[in-house]
Amino acid sequence: MKLTLRVWRQKNAGAEGAMSTYEVDDISPDMSFLEMLDVLNEQLILSGEEPVAFDHDCREGICGACSLVINGDAHGPERTTTCQLHMRSFKDGDTIDIEPWRASAFPVIKDLVVDRSAFDRIIQAGGYITAPTGAAPEAHATPVPKADADFAFEHAECIGCGACVAACPNGAAMLFTSAKVNHLNVLPQGAPERESRVLDMVAQMDAEGFGGCTLTGECATACPKGIPLMSITSMNKEWLRATRKAGKR
Amino acid sequence: MARTVWDSSVGKKTVMAVSGVIMLLYLVAHVIGNLKIFFGPDEFNHYGHWLRTVGEPFMHYEWTLWLIRVVLVVAVVAHATSAYQLSRRDLKARPTKYVHSKPRASYATRTMRWGGVILGLFIVWHVLDLTTGTVHSGGFQEGHPYQNVVDTFSTWYGNVIYIVAMLALGLHIRHGFWSAAQTLGVGSRARDRALKTVANVLALLLTAGFIAVPVGVMTGVVS
Ligand code: HEM
Ligand code: SF4
Ligand code: FES
């Protein structure tokens, strides 16, 4: 396949960026999108140009490091991560626009790499449980109803990639935050911090400068892990419950 | 607690949802009242008078009406203020547009902000027109709502303003009712279809019910 790529290039956080156009040839439909970018970078290095910076790690769709808005879609046209997107989703001769995640809470560091440490700080605010460390506890010691286990697992699938923020017209982190809150709040292990978790994580989310939810639903459409929009409804319910409880005390 | 709610984006959205639902309940009562115009001046004017005597002898003349007015003003102000503040926050959180942008979301979802502004302007005009009579086209007569309504809808601009605003209202409720359910945490996968259906039915009935009045005057059914 022969492709025209229009890629966002930006030297550093302070510099002005712009779209640059490149041609790549001999792309196999079996390549992943990131492998196609590797080909572009090899070509750039050979011609003495600066390679395009982009995030990646596992390339298996499980770590959440890769990003990229491809032709206006976070993680591209398929419901998967960019590393698991294959070039067979494109046609020979296509022009592909590649941009970084856009949100003021995710500033661009270089080219297609953005700073997602705001997510880490949301997790630090309450996305954990306090438990003694040591050997794994006996599995039957804390029974979890099947429905709760399924609910927790569905939300635990979030890999923290940030596609939800990138897709949201308000740059909101509601889907990410709700996935983390719901995952732990439904389980007995998460119960001791059930109220402080949702209040603190939502407060941190606001402090990081993410927008609010207008229930547009773009986040859930973009999410490679299929975190449902209703996840936000569940978090709102937890937030209201925690606020009522805090008010009574 | 009030402070925590107002300072949080989730809390402010709750204020928006609660005030929206209060206005929505009022509109359901309002449209039922309006449709009495099709039963002639006596019934409609009598209904207008009754609104002022509701609650008597417990309440004094017009007390109940004023109570409702106060609740509505608080709801409109709370709704508009939170909408404004949340919208500013949203725009600031996403300052850079994508070069490759696509039309997103449904029409009703995309028009919440502009539709809301249209509704806000309409509410001001509507009160000045038919409650205080300040901008009324004919000779506004206190206590004769039937004639006042006929006068308003005998002007082209009265009809245009009113019908445009009611179409905006339908779209606003279509996304707003379902949204409020999510904000208040009462939505669920099992209830989703039902909520969307109720949102559409409410939007349709309210819009059609309100628009029936100017159409009635234009076609001469009400005169
Ligand atoms: C003063 C005029 C108004 C303005 C400026 C306004 C603006 C807005 C905005 C910006 C939203 C949020 C949209 C979104 O989340 O995408 C909203 C939501 C809503 N509006 Fe209004 N609106 C107005 C009047 C009304 C009226 C008359 C009603 C009564 C039916 C209403 C009912 C609602 C409801 C139920 C919501 C959903 C709240 C939520 O998302 O949780 N609004 N409004
Ligand atoms: S909710 Fe989905 S899109 Fe958002 S960070 Fe988690 S996995 Fe990525
Ligand atoms: S590189 Fe790990 S999810 Fe894509």
Set out the fold topology.
The complex is a heterodimer of chains A (249) and B (223).
Chain A: E1 3-9, E2 18-24, H1 33-46, E3 69-70, E4 73-74, E5 95-99, E6 108-110, E7 113-114, H2 117-124, H3 146-156, H4 163-167, H5 174-185, H6 194-207, H7 218-222, H8 230-248
Parallel strand pairs in A: 1-5
Antiparallel strand pairs in A: 1-2, 3-4, 3-5, 6-7
Helix pairs in contact in A: 2-6, 3-5, 5-6, 5-8, 6-8
Chain B: H1 2-7, H2 9-34, H3 41-53, H4 63-93, H5 107-110, H6 112-131, H7 145-152, H8 156-183, H9 192-218
The complex binds protoporphyrin IX containing FE, iron/sulfur cluster and FE2/S2 (inorganic) cluster.
Protoporphyrin IX containing FE binds next to helix 2, helix 4, helix 6 and helix 8 of chain B.
Core attributes:
heterodimer; A: 249 residues; alpha+beta; Ubiquitin-like (UB roll); Fumarate Reductase Iron-sulfur Protein, Chain B, domain 2; 2 domains; two-stranded antiparallel sheet; 7 strands; B: 223 residues; mainly alpha; 3 helical TM bundles of succinate and fumarate reductases; 9 helices; globular; binds protoporphyrin IX containing FE; binds iron/sulfur cluster; binds FE2/S2 (inorganic) cluster; Helical_ferredxn (chain A); iron-sulfur (chain A)
